[in-house]
Amino acid sequence: MLISIIVAECHSSSEAGRFGFHKTLARIKHNFLWPRMHSTVKEFLCNYDICQRNKSDYMRPTGLLQPLPIPTKIWTKISMDFVEGFPPSNGNTVIIVVVDRLTRYAHFVPLRHPFIAVTVAKAFAAECFQAS
User: Fold this and answer.
1) Rounded Cα gap, residues 60 and 44, in angstroms
2) Which residues form the Integrase zinc-binding domain (predicted)?
């Protein structure tokens, strides 16, 4: 129990980051020693879920980018992006860019930072789908 706490602390603490096997083992050896330390650390790292999921060996290779299909009606498919880094204008520092993928007609919606999904949705609905 104590050994697994030591290994976890030396491998994945906020100060340690997530080191590989050799760095984790070296950090542990600096202060501790126990029988079969090498195999204990190796076993811990092999079973550490976060590292195994994010390991590049287990990631599928990415394929080539595929073009998006062309929509058949306007405003059925849109693209959105956030542009930040502007000086404040009426308190707004972010612009939401909404583009209809068929006509390429764009809406530029100002927004204050910080924002949440509800704020973005309300601004999107108010600016892009106003009642005429």
Assistant:
1) 24
2) 6-56
Instruction: Supply the pTM of this predicted model.
Output: 0.51
